[in-house]
Structure formats: structure tokens, C-alpha cells
Design goal:
Elements (H helix, E strand, L loop, with lengths): L5 E5 L6 H11 L3 E4 L5 H11 L7 H25 L4 E4 L2 H11 L4 H12 L6 E6 L2 H7 L13 H14 L5 E5 L4 H12 L5
Parallel strand pairs: 1-3, 1-4, 2-3, 4-5
Helix pairs in contact: 2-3, 3-4, 3-5, 4-5, 4-7
The protein binds thymidine-5'-diphosphate (TYD).
Amino acid sequence: MTRGVFLVFEGIDVSGKSTQARRVAAARDALFTFEPGDTPFGRELRHWVLDAATPMAPATEALVMLSDRSHHVRRVIEPALSEGRSVVSDRYYASTLAYQGYGRGVDLELLRAATALAIGTVHPTLTVLLDVPLEVVNERRAHDAKDRFEKEDLAFHQRVREGYLELAQDPSWVVLDGSLSEVEVAREVDVAVAHLAW
Ligand code: TYD
């Protein structure tokens, strides 16, 4: 049985990645999934890690994200891929490197080692980064920021963005301009994923 395609969308919170991930999954009859929180266990973790009322050390935050991922990849992603079903995920391991590593300053080498433990051999076929400049983050940001990350200042989002751009040097990534209109981004995404063996 041929394994499914594993496509991941990454980007800062206002990049429009969730919309694109859902759209591509529906168009290709792939399984749509997301992190953090797409399992019953993950939903509990998501509550604790995003709840702004319960401060958490950066390393703790990273380990919660990694626990969610470790469970998610074994219960949801890998079973689908090994049955030949394609999977589109809204965020995967690069989110932890970008947010907890570049954003919060957790040691990147330690995060990479912990990531290897969390994901085993399940690497994305392609990661699409929807990159948005800080001015766009400022414009699109909800003024009633709710979770721990939405409340962070622009300097934090800038570090996360730069981290993503560094990670995207890897040949298994493609960077698209997320500041374009939704229709234009959709067109670029479709071109970028057309060659995958859906
Ligand atoms: P998400 O549900 O994708 O929210 P949004 O639609 O706003 O992007 O993710 C919630 C937050 O969790 C988001 O601000 C990024 C953060 N996050 C991390 O910090 N590390 C991680 O490993 C993941 C998966 C998410």
C-alpha cells in the first residue's frame, strides 16, 4: 500500500494557514487535522497550554506541545498515512521550534532531540509556510486577544516569523506570501501542492 501524502501548513497566528489547510484537505479528500488538540487527550492539553490564566515555563510549554504531538502522530497521523490516506495538518513540529525555540528561547538542539522522540520517522512530505510581515500581523490581530500566544507582543511574533524563515531553508519547505488576498494565496498554494502524489 502506498503511503499517503503528509502536507503541513505553518505560519504565525494571522497567516490564514487554517483556512488553506482545510480547503486543500477538502479538495483532495485528505484527512484534515491540527495541533495542538485534535484528540481527546490533546484537547485537555490545549486547554492548559493556551489558558492565559495559568502561566507556564517555556520548557513546560514545549513539553506539553510535544506530548500532544507524540499522541497525535501515533493515534491520528500515522494510522491514516499507513492506510494510504493523505493528511493535511494545521501545524506540526516546526511550530514548537518556531514558538518555543525561536520565540521563547528554549534550546533548539534539545527541542530537536525531543521532537525526534515525539514524531519518530513521520516527517511531512511538504511544509508550506504562509509568511506574513509584522505590519500585517498588527493589522489582522484580534483586539480581544484571548490565548497566551495572541497576547504576546510584536517582538515575540517577529522572532517566531524569523525562526520560520530559517527553518524554511530546508528543501522540504515552500514559502508563500500570506499577505496576499485569500484567493491569491489559494492559487499559489494549489500550484505548490500540485506535484504531490495525492
Ligand atoms: P492554533 O490553534 O493553530 O491557533 P491559530 O489559529 O491562532 O494559529 O495554535 C494555537 C497557538 O499555539 C498558536 O498561537 C501557536 C501555538 N503553538 C505553539 O506555541 N507551539 C506548538 O508546538 C503549536 C502546535 C502551537
